[in-house]
Design a protein that fits this description.
mainly alpha, two-stranded antiparallel ribbon, 5 helices, elongated
């Protein structure tokens, strides 16, 4: 069996989020009960999945996680941090801008970008 520390950080975060909202998903709530349960969860301290320090989450954050998981057929995957669309690609300057910077630096080598 794998321990939580064997998971990558995004997996540990998903597990923590699911541990927080799992009881809400597991038992049907009476009308009007969700608000008080979210407020109670927001007042609790949880263990940060990376540092191990105590951490709190706001009611609105827990509510967002709840509805994300509720709308998904795979709640733990829905609670993972989504990958940035530009991940793996570095920032790029337009060709004319990079040419202008290169020429300016050659003409004025004492310039800095600060």
């Amino acid at each position: 069996m794998t321990s939580p520390m064997d998971l990558p950080p995004y997996g540990r975060w998903a597990q923590l989020r699911f541990a927080i909202i799992g009881p809400l998903l597991n038992h049907p709530l009476a009308r009007g009960e969700l608000r008080s349960r979210l407020r109670a969860l927001g007042e609790q301290k949880w263990t940060h999945p990376i540092t191990g320090l105590p951490v709190c989450f706001g009611k609105s954050t827990i509510e967002r996680w709840y509805y994300q998981a509720l709308a998904s057929t795979r709640p733990t995957q829905a609670l993972q941090r989504s990958r940035r669309k530009d991940a793996g690609s570095g920032p790029q300057l337009a060709e004319d801008v990079s040419t202008w910077i290169r020429v300016s630096y050659q003409e004025h080598p004492s310039w800095t970008y600060l």
